[in-house]
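Notes from hallway chat w/ T.B., transcribed later so I don't forget. T.B. wanted the structure written out for a chain they're using in a teaching module, and asked if we could keep both sequence and structure tokens in one place. Agreed to drop them here.
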Amino acid sequence: MDFMISIIALTSALTLAAVVVMYFKLSAAIDRRAKAILNATENQFRQIEALLAVYKESDITHALPPTRGWAASPDFLRNLSILIGEKKPRTVVECSSGTSTLVVAACLKRLGEGHVYSLENDPEFAEKTRAALIRSGLSSWATVLDAPLKQTILDGWQGNWYSTDNLPPDLNIDLLCIDGPPGIFQPLARYPALPIFAQQLSTPAYVIMDDSERDDEKTTICRWKESFKYIETHHVPECEKGCTLLRIAGLK
């Protein structure tokens, strides 16, 4: 009898211990899930607030395309609109086109001067952006250029990057906005932007990069800093995908 009681007691203790362990595991999982939901909710609020600010600050009168997925997020667009309002660039070159093209064009229109040239490798998407610019009354402030990806060889990098054949050759670029090409094409897909446009940059010029929390973009920025003598990182509000602003005042 005593043996049976001991077995029952041991079994009960083990069962209780298993329940306690399961409880703490579930509690930790629930806590992690709750924090994830809270963070996602807070981020959604930040994106909504940023999008409302973009509409207000850039005087956009037509609905912007969706800002989820691959599109520039509202917080990045807000940083972009603030930057244009403060630095008042006359010439903007954009790597990729889309929602950001509309925002840049609207900001330039509000300033009363300037033009944005957007390089786009996807002809269908280029047409969509042009149509959106026309609908929004912004086509005179932006030019979307067909820029197929072509073989490009640079010092320490080779791959496919935008053709610049359709870009006016005598531009003095005040702001370079980098949101492409997509990283699926090759490693460090956005690296060529600065080396290719270096000789056309104004003094100073500003470079703003989306998605800068990704490893490739971090590596790209580090390599740029090794190649340019006067390059500074300027603070911008945090973005969900990362956003880096550089001020470039000269070359090596």
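Follow-up for T.B.: The helical segments are 2-58, 74-87, 99-111, 123-135, 193-197, 215-227. Might be a good example for the class.
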